[in-house]
Design goal:
This protein is an alpha/beta fold. 32% of the residues lie in helices and 18% in strands. Helix 5 runs parallel beside helix 9. It is globular. The structure holds ligand BJW. Ligand BJW binds next to loops.
């Protein structure tokens, strides 16, 4: 990678691996979430229509797990970077694009966080389009607090649905000098394609992951290890540059 002092704008993509050490299961590991919850049952609109109760139960459990989890040193390090890396401090822009539905980046101190696959602690009304912070259960079709209809679903982007805020994400990638991917397997598009997009605009590309991923060959540098160790080390490097 080029000299760190040429880096101004940073985009950081995170996936389930960054929250693994907080006790939240990843998807594609042998003991991952998809092992006992088939994707097509719990992460598609068709699955939801077929058995809403099953899907609501799955996300009720995920919501409870998220609330019981705490940010780990990787979230906290990104929180420090987010606080420090600002144009007003002669650095540049920063955006954390997370595929995760947990709120551990926010609780780890980061403010510039975009949840491209939705949020566990949000319910979306399919009748009036309102979104509500939701910490309890969605089973039994509770009424939407805004319109009263029993039309709330988890505010989650399922397969075949458009991830959130794609324009903003591509704009940030188009302007970045460094793209960093943390704890994601590179199996799910469009997120898996961001590294190539960043490469096209001449940005440096760095992968921080436990093991080689499907996308490793697209990165200019890959560092392997636990997020709780390699993310704080990288953040210290950035803050010292
Ligand atoms: C550690 C660690 C530690 C472990 N430290 N690291 C192009 C080609 C083929 C198919 C498609 C394509 N473009 C789109 C598609 C379809 C589809 C798709 O990608 N399918 C693939 C499976 C091939 N994509 C979509 O449908 C997306 N929508 C879309 O493209 O819209 C456009 C469109 C719409 C309509 C018509 C036409 C086009 C939507 C994708 C939605 C994904 N949703 C999910 C579930 C919801 C959220 C939830 O329930 O939590 O999001 S799927 C699931 O996978 C979840 C995750 O965010 C996502 C990514 O997983 P992630 O984070 O990478 O986790 P893992 O488990 O895979 O990897 C963890 C990694 O961490 C591993 O590498 C470990 O080694 C590592 N790790 N411990 C560091 N301690």
């Amino acid at each position: 990678m080029g000299a760190m002092d040429h880096i101004r704008n940073i985009v950081i993509l995170t996936g389930a691996g960054i929250s693994a050490e907080s006790g939240l299961r990843t998807f594609r590991a042998d003991d991952g979430l998809w092992e006992d919850h088939p994707v097509e049952q719990v992460a598609t609109l068709q699955g939801f229509h077929r058995d809403p109760d099953l899907v609501q139960r799955f996300y009720d459990e995920r919501r409870a797990q998220v609330m019981a989890a705490n940010p780990n040193p990787a979230h906290l390090a990104l929180g420090r970077l987010d606080m420090a890396w600002k144009p007003s401090r002669n650095r540049g822009e920063l955006l954390i694009v997370t595929q995760n539905i947990d709120d551990l980046h926010e609780r780890g101190g980061a403010a510039r966080v975009l949840h491209m696959h939705g949020e566990a602690l949000s319910a979306w009304c399919t009748m009036c389009d309102a979104r509500h912070r939701w910490t309890g259960s969605l089973r039994g079709a509770p009424p939407c607090p805004a319109c009263g209809q029993a039309a709330l679903r988890p505010d989650i982007v399922w397969f075949g649905e458009m991830p959130y805020q794609m324009d903003r994400i591509y704009r940030a990638i188009g302007n970045c000098d460094l793209f960093v991917s943390i704890g994601t397997s590179g199996a799910v598009y469009p997120a898996a394609g961001f590294v190539q997009e960043a490469g096209r605009v001449g940005a440096g590309t760095l992968e921080l992951n436990l093991e080689e991923s499907l996308g490793s060959r697209f990165f200019s540098e890959t560092r392997l290890g636990k997020a709780s160790e390699i993310v704080p080390a990288w953040v210290e490097e950035m803050l010292a540059s």
